[in-house]
Structure formats: C-alpha cells, structure tokens
Design a protein that fits this description.
Elements: H1 13-17, H2 35-41, E1 46-53, E2 58-63, E3 68-73, E4 80-86, E5 89-93, H3 96-102, E6 112-114, E7 122-129, E8 142-145, H4 153-160, H5 168-180, H6 184-187, E9 195-203, E10 210-213, E11 222-227, E12 231-237, E13 257-263
C-alpha cells in the first residue's frame, strides 16, 4: 500500500479526481474476427493431435494456421499458463500487455491474442469458452486474465529465499527448449507474459493488489482458439492447482491439462485470409 501520510492534499483534489474517463485505444477500427465463419467452421472439426500436460510441468505443441486448438480440463480444477510464438519466428510472440489494452484485463469469445511489436497482428482468436457464463463476480474477479506475468523462480527466491524449479516460467522454458532444440539459456528469453487460462483473478478494491481465487473450471471445460498463423505453443499446468491457495507449491492438489489440435473440413474457411504483419514501415521518424 502506498504511504501518503506526509503528503499535502491540494485544494482542487476533488475536481481533479472527477475528470472524465477516456478509453486509451478506441477499437471501432480494430480488425475483428468473422465469428459467424468460425462458428460454422468449428462444427466440423477433426482432432489431429492431443497433448497431455502433466501437473506442475509444461508441454509444447504446434497448431497449423487455420486450425483450432482447445485447452481442456480433464481430471480436476487446474489453471494453465499459455505462451504462443510464430512457428517460423520466435521473435514474434504473444503480447499480453497490448492484448489487455485492446480488449480487457480478461479475455473471452471474439477477443484476439495479439503479437509483439513490430508485427502486431492477431495470432489467435478465442472461438468458444465453456466458462463464459462466469462474467464478473462480487469481488470483481473474472477468468482468463492477461494481467499476471507467470509464477517464476526469481520472484520465488526474492520473496521466500528458496529455489523452486516447477514455476510456470521454468516449465515453459524447458518445454520451449525441447520443442525448438534450444538450450535452456537460449530458450528462456523467449518465454513471455502469459494468458492465464482458467485462472480467476482481479484487483482488490482497497489496495488494488492483484489477487487470485479458486478457479471455477471443472473437468470437461475448455477454452478454444483459432490459429490465425502457424503457432508453437507451450502450456504449463501451474503448481498452484486451481490457484485458490498459493503459487509454486508441491502440496496443493494439481491436475493435468489437455491440448487438442483440431482441423476444420476442407472449404470451411472459404473467404478467410490470414493476417498480415503490421504495415507501419518502421522508419521511426
């Protein structure tokens, strides 16, 4: 909490606080997904790959452009930390901060996962969410946030003075290193802020601190996305389990997650075109 005991409140403080809100990025011209086309395409999907992510670990997977993929709860309430990269260029990766700025703190059907500068294009579009009913609860919490960074061994050392190697950052590093044939040192800089799949989070009303609570996810629930470009993904089954108690723990109940990669029927995406890289010419002056 910020200390304000030695500050002088200006006489016009109330007036300053009443200034009108201005949305930072008006999105009326933002390219939107053709959800009618995607909804029609998802009716004829065929599973072409399945990857089970063990508890407190991560696995990488590939999704061809124009395919769908689902993150599925299979055994118990479990949250997952998701990273995405352009399969042909690891420098282009998911940009959670810009996704948050363009959409919201928590994402749902129709929202898109945007890539880093200078590419800035949709990497994936959310097409179905069985937790879409949750909305916002009385604490101001929602699911699938693009707020949290991921649990990591550096913060764990900072706060607890001990080392824990099953943090999502380490899990994702190992998964990418294996999938891309990189050393851990080469893979780690590519690991980035995540989409917290199934995680239920918000900000406290008094201190505005980031909080988590037990996820409402149950076996059978899934988040489905459409791959706008060829993707490499990595998903960590967080060592916090449903994140209702703690992060980075070997004692809290944790469960596996499943990733399903699904192919639409031939012709189902007629008229769809993959997104181009951002058109800004990179002259910077």
């Amino acid at each position: 909490m910020h200390s304000t005991s030695d500050l002088v409140v200006p006489s016009d403080a109330a007036e300053r606080r009443k200034r009108r809100r201005v949305v930072v990025y008006p999105v009326e011209t933002l390219p939107i997904a053709d959800l009618d086309l995607l909804r029609a395409a998802r009716k004829g999907l065929t599973t072409v790959d399945e990857i089970v992510v063990p508890p407190r670990d991560a696995r990488a997977f590939r999704v061809p452009q124009g395919h769908f993929f689902r993150i599925v709860s299979i055994d118990g309430p479990q949250v997952g930390d998701l990273n995405l990269w352009n399969a042909g260029n690891l420098a282009e990766r998911f940009f959670s901060g810009k996704t948050r700025a363009l959409h919201a703190t928590h994402v749902g059907v129709g929202d898109r996962l945007w890539s880093t500068l200078p590419y800035l294009r949709p990497m994936a579009t959310i097409t179905h969410d069985t937790l879409g009913w949750y909305g916002w609860d009385d604490d101001g919490a929602g699911v699938h946030d693009v707020i949290g960074t991921r649990c990591d061994p550096y913060t764990n050392r900072l706060l607890k003075g001990s080392d824990y190697h099953n943090c999502c950052h380490s899990n994702l590093t190992r998964a990418l290193a294996s999938a891309a044939d990189l050393s851990l040192a080469e893979a780690e800089p590519h690991v980035h802020d995540v989409l917290n799949v199934f995680m239920c989070t918000g900000f406290t009303r008094d201190t505005h601190q980031y909080f988590m609570k037990a996820s409402p996810v149950r076996p059978g629930d899934f988040l489905e996305l459409f791959a706008e470009i060829d993707l490499v993904g990595a998903l960590s089954a967080c060592p916090g389990g449903d994140c209702g108690e703690t992060h980075s723990s070997d004692t809290v109940a944790c469960y596996p997650l499943k990733v399903e990669v699904l192919r639409p029927e031939p012709g189902a995406l007629a008229g769809w075109a993959p997104p181009r890289e951002n058109a800004y010419p990179r002259t910077h002056g």
